[in-house]
């Protein structure tokens, strides 16, 4: 993928970031699974509902840190730019989907929260390819 | 911002890859700076000035 850091940067990051990323992804899908299977009542439901977006924020922070691990400032700027566009794309898609769902238009179905991760990565790949022309 | 990187590099017979290696950045990054697509930070500008044994103002100038 065009926006990925160098091999050395990846290795430096893996030692520190990989365990935390596993915990963040585990929390995200774990909360989803608890909601789906046990339908928790209010105090626990609120706590779990807060945990899920928190795990996404943590995950986003780790992705940005991972992409910034490279020491090449042009590549860092390029990746930051791509992450910004991917975040904006995901936010726009969520807003549109929410509007369609609220007004029950275009048969918008409920989507599992876990879909946010592949959609974000999809936007990141597209943004990375488009922005490559601008930076290189 | 414009720059004289291409000229300075040519004077020393350095390729973009040579300069990239000396700066510890990618060749694409050297190209982005050289073509004015990216303005380097002060530390990188100082590194360039030191490498070419000149001042930052002698390398970078306003449009």
Concise summary:
By secondary structure, chain A is mostly helical. Chain A has helices at 7-38, 42-68, 73-102, 116-135.
How is this structure best described in words?
The complex is a heterodimer of chains A (136) and B (63). Chain A has helices at 7-38, 42-68, 73-102, 116-135. By secondary structure, chain A is mostly helical. In chain A, helix 1 packs antiparallel against helix 2 and helix 3 (73-102) packs across helix 4 (116-135). The longest helix of chain A has 32 residues, at 7-38. By secondary structure, chain B is mostly helical. Chain B is built from five helices and two strands, in the order E-H-H-H-H-H-E. A two-stranded antiparallel ribbon of chain B has the order 1-2. Chain B is globular. Chain A binds chain B through residues 6, 71-75, 77, 134-136, and chain B through 24-26, 28-29, 31-33, 37-38, 40-41, 44.
Choose one word for the global shape of chain B: globular
Which pair has the most extensive contact? A-B, 10 and 13 residues
Number of helices of chain A: 4
Task: Calculate the mean pLDDT score of chain B and round it.
Answer: 90
Order of helices and strands of chain A: HHHH
- Structural class designation of chain A: mainly alpha
What structural category characterises the helix and strand content of chain B? Answer: mainly alpha
């Amino acid at each position: 993928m065009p926006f990925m850091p160098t091999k050395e940067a990846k290795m430096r990051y893996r030692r520190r970031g990989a365990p935390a990323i596993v915990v963040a992804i585990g929390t995200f899908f774990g909360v989803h699974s608890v909601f789906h299977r046990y339908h928790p009542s209010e105090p626990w439901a609120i706590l779990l509902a807060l945990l899920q977006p928190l795990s996404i924020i943590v995950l986003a922070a780790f992705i940005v840190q991972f992409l910034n691990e490279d020491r090449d400032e042009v590549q860092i700027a390029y990746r930051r730019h791509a992450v910004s566009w991917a975040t904006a794309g995901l936010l726009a898609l969520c807003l549109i989907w929410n509007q369609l769902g609220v007004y029950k238009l275009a048969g918008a179905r409920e989507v599992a929260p876990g879909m946010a991760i592949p959609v974000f990565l999809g936007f990141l790949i597209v943004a990375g390819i488009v922005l490559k022309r601008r930076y290189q | 911002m414009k720059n004289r990187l291409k000229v300075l590099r040519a004077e020393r017979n350095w390729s973009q890859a040579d300069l990239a290696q000396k700066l510890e950045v990618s060749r694409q990054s050297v190209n982005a700076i050289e073509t004015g697509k990216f303005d380097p930070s002060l530390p990188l500008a100082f590194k360039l000035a030191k490498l070419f044994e000149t001042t930052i103002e002698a390398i970078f100038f306003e449009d």
